[in-house]
Every structure is written in structure tokens, then in C-alpha cells.
Design a protein that fits this description.
The protein is an alpha/beta fold and about 350 residues long. The chain is built from eleven helices and 13 strands.
Length: about 350
């Protein structure tokens, strides 16, 4: 088996040392430095307000050192008071000063403490909220799609799935690069950081409950290992894998892949077709690009089509899937249509039905 060059699933040694973890898309993103700066400004404002209150009513305060309270003494008193240190060397002794402490300084002291401990409380709250979101995500995730490898092929596969109606919440990205997963989170996808050849990483992606698995690694040997692991964890999922070299496609099928796409050969055939007929190449590219122009879809036979000839169907039928047999539109066995058949048709993107899923 040929082993092409550097693999996106093994970008750096540091990536392989990362503990597999699930990263859900963030709903509210605010820079930590901005949060700290905001709290610091609030704390300074509370301190300055307290100093102003003490300076205005400094005649009602007594300093055990020199009996006079100046600006520096007011700053000192405000600092030790807000921090609840309270050495007792400067105290309010007049009725107005004590009333001011009760009505103004004490609430400011509580507010100051809330600001100081706010960061810690927010961290604890955020961890609790994130843990709750993760547990809820695990309990509700069913029949989803796992995309392994978020390079050019993985992104294109994901875009095609979304164009056919699959929700972003039903797609989980697996990649060993933290930066790649962060990019996926920014796009609204859940990501798992880790090496997909390891079963514990795939289990974090809830692959055992997935309906579809897309394997889009850059190395063929990696794709084989991931396919073997994925098939062992999930016997019923539909696995589609990509390989660079056509001679490695049989290994992927033997490893458990339901469909194998040879990326290099497919691109070469499209190039050759475009050379012979640029228009035909444009049509083929349009067919494989979901959501615009003409789309190639799979759908079940509806009751009104049962018993009809393939050519009598309103849509342009390319093939008929009957059981495990794929019959061409011109195959005599394809007609009449049966209720359990599935049709591969060409339709306008504007008339696309909801996402078609294979039968259970």
C-alpha cells in the first residue's frame, strides 16, 4: 500500500499528545483580557467613589495617628475598608460619617467584593454550564454524522451535507489539531480533538450511535486504520472514505467502508472530461456541488410511481437501487418500479426535497 506524504491527521508531535476532548461551539465569545479590564475599571470606580465620599465628610473621621484625615488618609481608609481589612486606626465618629458608612460605604464594600470574586465565580459557573451542555449533548445526540479530518475534503463533504439539509448540530468533526477544531467551532460545529485511529477518541464523538461516517484523512494508511476502528465500534453506520491512490480502494472496502472515493482519480477524470468537453465538465461539477443548479439525489419511490416505467417518472432517473443492486435507467430489470426501490435522480436545486436518508 502506498503511503503518501505528510498527513493532516499527524500534523505535529504535540497534536498526538493532546488528550481527546469534546469542544462544543461557544454561544457567547468575549476575550478574557476584555473581561479582566472591565472588572478592573469597575473596581477602580468603586474605590474612587469611596475615596470621594470619605474626602467630602473627612471632618467626621478620626485618625489615631494625627487626628486629621487628609486625601492620602481617605485613600488608605477606602482601601482597607473595601477589602474588609479594617485596622481601626481611622474610624468615623460623627453621626453623619457613620450614617454615610451604613448607607453608602457598606454597599460599595459588598459591590467591591463581588467584583473581586466575580472572575472566580464566573469560571466555576462556566465550567458547570459547559459540563451541563456536554452531558445534554451526549444524551440527545443520535443518528448524527461524524466527519473525520477537517481538511479540504472534509470541509467539502460537510458543506455538501449541510446543503442537503443536515443541521450543523448533527455533525461532529474529529481532528487532532486544536486550531482546526476551534475553526470548526467558529462555524457552529461540535469538534473532538484527538487521533481518530484511537477508539476512545471516536467514542467521545459518539461514533457508536452515528448514522453516517465520513473519513477524509490525507494518508491512505490512516484511512484504513480509522475505517477498521469505526466499523468495529459501529456495525450499522454507513462509512464513506476517501483515498488518494486507486489501488488502495479495495483495502478500504475490506476494512468496512461502504463507499470509497478515489480523490486523485476522480479529479483526473474530471480534468480529462473537461478537456474533451468543457461543457460536460461544467455539468459534472454542477452535479457534485449541492445546492446550486442541478443536483444528484437519492430518494424513495412514492406510491404514485409504483408499477411505472423508469421513463414515466417526472424526475430524470439515472439509476434504480433495488436491494443491493444498482440498475441503470436503461436496464430492463429496472422497470416496473417497486415500492421498496430507491431512485437516483437529477433535479433542480430549488426543488430539492428534505435530506434523504437510507432505509433502516
Amino acid at each position: 500500500m502506498k503511503l503518501p506524504g505528510h498527513d493532516a491527521m499527524a500534523r505535529s508531535a504535540d497534536d498526538h499528545l493532546i488528550t481527546a476532548r469534546v469542544k462544543l461551539p461557544r454561544r457567547i465569545v468575549e476575550k478574557p483580557l476584555r473581561q479582566v479590564a472591565k472588572r478592573l475599571l469597575m473596581a477602580l470606580f468603586v474605590l474612587a467613589l469611596t475615596v470621594f465620599i470619605v474626602v467630602v465628610d473627612r471632618a467626621g473621621y478620626h485618625d489615631n495617628a494625627d487626628e486629621n484625615v487628609d486625601f492620602l488618609d481617605a485613600v488608605y481608609y477606602a482601601t482597607v475598608t473595601l477589602s474588609t481589612t479594617g485596622y481601626g486606626d481611622i474610624v468615623p465618629y460623627s453621626d453623619s460619617a457613620r450614617l454615610t458608612n451604613v448607607l453608602l460605604v457598606t454597599p460599595l464594600r459588598v459591590l467591591f467584593l463581588i467584583i473581586l470574586v466575580g472572575t472566580t465565580l464566573e469560571v466555576l459557573t462556566e465550567r458547570t454550564r459547559e459540563e451541563w451542555r456536554l452531558n445534554r449533548w451526549r444524551s440527545t445526540l443520535r443518528d448524527h454524522t461524524v466527519v473525520i479530518g477537517f481538511g479540504t475534503k472534509g470541509r467539502s463533504a460537510m458543506q455538501t451535507l449541510c446543503a442537503t439539509g443536515l443541521k450543523k448540530e448533527q455533525i461532529v468533526i474529529v481532528d487532532p489539531s486544536t486550531k482546526v477544531i476551534e475553526a470548526a467551532n467558529a462555524d457552529g460545529f461540535t469538534g473532538v480533538v484527538g487521533d481518530a485511529t484511537r477508539s476512545d477518541v471516536l467514542l467521545r464523538a459518539e461514533l457508536q450511535r452515528a448514522r453516517q461516517i465520513v473519513i477524509a484523512t490525507q494518508r491512505d494508511d490512516t484511512a484504513v486504520l480509522v475505517t477498521l476502528t469505526a466499523r468495529q465500534l459501529n456495525r450499522g453506520a454507513k462509512i464513506v472514505a476517501a483515498v488518494r491512490e486507486e489501488e488502495n480502494a479495495p483495502l478500504l472496502r475490506q476494512s468496512g467502508a461502504d463507499a470509497v472515493i478515489t480523490s486523485a482519480s476522480a479529479a483526473g477524470r474530471l480534468l480529462g472530461l473537461s478537456v474533451l468537453s468543457p461543457s460536460a465538465g461544467t455539468v459534472m461539477e454542477d452535479l457534485i456541488q449541492q445546492g446550486s443548479g442541478l443536483d444528484l439525489i437519492e430518494r424513495p419511490v412514492i406510491k404514485s410511481e409504483v408499477g411505472k416505467n423508469v421513463r414515466e417518472v417526472n424526475d430524470l432517473v439515472v439509476s434504480v437501487l433495488r436491494g443491493h443492486r444498482l440498475l441503470g435507467y436503461d436496464d430492463p430489470a429496472a422497470s416496473p418500479l417497486q415500492l421498496t426501490d430507491r431512485l437516483i435522480t437529477i433535479v433542480r436545486a430549488s426543488s430539492l426535497p428534505p435530506l434523504s436518508t437510507p432505509p433502516e
